[in-house]
Write a structure and sequence with these properties.
Shape: globular
Radius of gyration: 19 Å
Oligomer: single chain
CATH topology: 2-enoyl-CoA Hydratase, Chain A, domain 1
Order of helices and strands: HHHEEEEEHEHHEHEEHHHEHH
Number of strands: 10
Structural class: alpha/beta
Largest sheet: 8 strands, mixed
Strand content: 15-25%
């Protein structure tokens, strides 16, 4: 007996997931000077230490023979890794799948990320880009309801604030519950001129008669002054370096003997 057929099918499904939102959207992400979530995880984690959970979770399409023809992965990637030699949990939004919006989210992945950090008592690094799960007009159209106010899983976020170190990196436009994730951390970082943090973006604010850019509405200068984030850096690479020195993230070898 062999499991080779099943293993081959699993690898095929994983290959779908690695395509993220597709070549055009991946290229758009890179053209904007931003890494994809899988590139970010690779830069954040120590080499060959990231073990992903729920990789093939997503929306599947099948042909008339019930064979899988397409898989659009969930717009959230998470798993266990090491950073600076220390075990951590890393979770991040995939902006290439519907701009990281809630209607491409499998909420169970966000919740499981928090549960894993809590159960294993490991620091959690969240890479935030998108609206993060609060719901949108599309969510209401497809499900008949909004996700708020009864958003499941947030009681665990609050619990984790008193249990494990939570570090958040705002790596692009961060709105809705994504903004809440960035704020609900012990240490947070934004990218100058590329990150913006707000509850709702410029199109919503424009309805009040104020025509503001993303940076004018929620750029790093505003959010540092407001105390919503702790630090701002020039590049993503710098942002990936900062969690290694955040409270609770540093190993004795890293800082005491380095």
């Amino acid at each position: 007996m062999t499991w080779q057929t099943e293993l081959d099918e699993l690898r095929r499904r994983e290959a779908f997931a690695e395509e993220l939102g597709g070549p055009e959207r991946v290229q758009r992400q890179r053209d904007g000077g931003r890494y994809t979530i899988r590139e970010r995880v690779a830069l954040m984690a120590d080499p060959n230490t990231f073990h992903e959970s729920g990789k093939i979770g997503g929306m599947a399409e099948y042909d008339e023979n019930n064979d899988l023809t397409k898989l659009t992965p969930s717009n959230f990637v998470f798993g266990k890794a090491k950073v600076g030699g220390r075990p951590v949990i890393i979770g991040g939004d995939d902006f290439t799948v519907r701009g990281g919006s809630a209607d491409a989210t499998i909420k169970g992945k966000h919740t499981m990320c928090e549960e894993m950090a809590n159960a294993l008592r490991l620091p959690l690094i969240r890479m935030v880009e998108g609206s993060g799960g609060g719901g949108s007009v599309k969510t209401i159209e497809t499900t008949g309801r909004a996700n708020v106010p009864g958003v499941s899983g947030w009681e665990l976020v609050v619990q984790n604030m008193g249990t494990v170190p939570r570090v958040a990196l705002g790596l692009g436009s961060v709105a809705g519950l994504g903004a809440a994730h960035l704020a609900s951390s012990h240490y947070s970082v934004m990218i100058k001129d590329k990150s913006a943090l707000f509850v709702a973006g410029p199109p919503v604010v424009a309805r009040t008669g104020q025509d503001l850019t993303k940076n004018e509405l929620g750029g790093y200068q505003i959010q540092l002054k407001a105390g919503a984030v702790d630090h701002a850096v020039n590049t993503e690479e710098e942002a990936f370096d900062y969690p290694r020195g955040a409270p609770g993230m540093t190993t004795q070898t890293d800082r005491s003997t380095g």
